[in-house]
Each structure stands twice: as C-alpha cells, then as structure tokens.
Specification:
There is one protein chain. With 108 residues, the chain is mainly β. It is built from no helices and nine strands. The chain has a four-stranded antiparallel sheet with strand order 6-7-8-9, with no helix packed on it.
Length: 108
C-alpha cells in the first residue's frame, strides 16, 4: 500500500501555490505557504513534512458558519517528520505530539 500525502497543494488567487494540512487539534485545514517570498522552510516531503519555524494561525473558528460564531481560536505548533507538536498557547485542548493524518478532504 502506497503512503498517502499529509499535505495538499492548492493554487490561490495571488498566483502563489500554497499547501494545506488537516489539523487534528482544530479539525479544519490550515494553509501554509511553502513556495515563493515569505515561505516557510520545509523539507519538500509531502508524506513526512517538516516546517520551520513554528506554525501559528489565529482567527474566528465559525466566521463562515450560520449563524456566525465569533469564538476566536489560536493554533500554534511545530511540525517535524509528519508529526505535529501542539504548544500550550493553543485555544483547543490538544497538546503534545500527534501524527498528521493523511490528507483527506471530506467536502470536495
């Protein structure tokens, strides 16, 4: 059985290619810029990715839900060799090292 990638490459309107991964802490996809100016350093591996520096994203989790949920979130982690280490400043309850799931987009 072939190993499945843990990142998916996506093209955005700004003509840069980004990647996204499914976050096991937030339960949603997080984008990460791995090409072009201001990109994260990464090892080029879609199956066991490593990014530097740490990855931090914040926003409003239910901004696009109906009705909107104004609850803010923050997700901060290190991603090394296909595993994610959630740091203590995350607003979700998941902490420590976890495997990144293979990339499966549930709603295509």
């Amino acid at each position: 059985m072939a190993l499945q990638p843990k990142l998916r490459r996506i093209a955005l309107a700004d003509q840069y290619f980004h990647h996204e991964f499914m976050c096991p802490g937030c339960g949603i996809e997080h984008p990460i810029k791995l090409e072009g100016e201001n990109a994260w350093a990464w090892n080029g591996d879609l199956i066991e990715p490593t990014f530097n520096p740490s990855y931090r994203i914040q926003g409003v989790l239910g901004a696009f839900s109906t009705p909107p949920d104004p609850t803010p979130y923050l997700c901060h982690s290190f991603i090394e060799n296909g595993r994610i280490n959630f740091l203590n400043d995350c607003t979700h309850s998941v902490r420590g090292w976890h495997d990144l799931s293979r990339y499966v987009k549930l709603m295509d």
